[in-house]
Amino acid sequence: MNPEQFDGLIFDLDGTLVDTMPLHLASWELASREFGFVYDADWLYALGGVPSRKIVDIINREQGISLDGERVVQVKNDHYQTLLPQARPFPAMLALLEQHRGRPMAIGTGSSRVNAERVLANTGLKAFFPVVITADDVEQHKPGPETYLRAADGLGISPERCLVFEDTPIGRQAATAAGMACVMVVEGQPELG
């Protein structure tokens, strides 16, 4: 899929542009130790794009427990903020951004606004993205289409003219539901072939 065929490019952030998923997973693991829930890295990775508060709801339901969601999220985010300076953009994705510098580009992430803004600032990626849609900006999170529809709207581009870059099946489902084409990014490499 050729990005030149589209008017706007929309990127998921964690695991797509920036190698933050190991930091999120490490934060979840530390939180699991403190709160006593079962930690499963593969399962949590598959939930990439789902806001942390909703992940705690899923953990409660699937593990038959009743954790205080706000408290778990706060502890997880505190760990994440401590680890965040380690985050780096994937080299292939940074090259892609440089190649398309000046084109309409947006972020559509399941992260909170504070986490997304900090990642973008720390990695030097903020200048690429005039539009940043976070979990705080939508009611229906991924796999629903709202994140990507709001990003397209922010760019002033119709959804079918946007190309999304994602690293999880939930994110791809959100892009498809928004009527957008989607390129999967695997271990920092876009599958443009």
From TrEMBL:
Q: Which InterPro entries match?
A: B-phosphoglucomutase_hydrolase, HAD-like_sf, HAD-like_SPP, HAD-SF_hydro_IA, HAD_2, HAD_sf, PGP-like_dom2
Keywords from the named record: Hydrolase
What domain of life is recorded for the organism? Bacteria
Q: Which CDD domains match?
A: HAD_BPGM-like
Q: Which Pfam families match?
A: HAD_2
Family stated for the protein in its record: Belongs to the HAD-like hydrolase superfamily. CbbY/CbbZ/Gph/YieH family.
- The protein here is known as Beta-phosphoglucomutase family hydrolase
In which organism is this protein found?
Answer: Zobellella endophytica
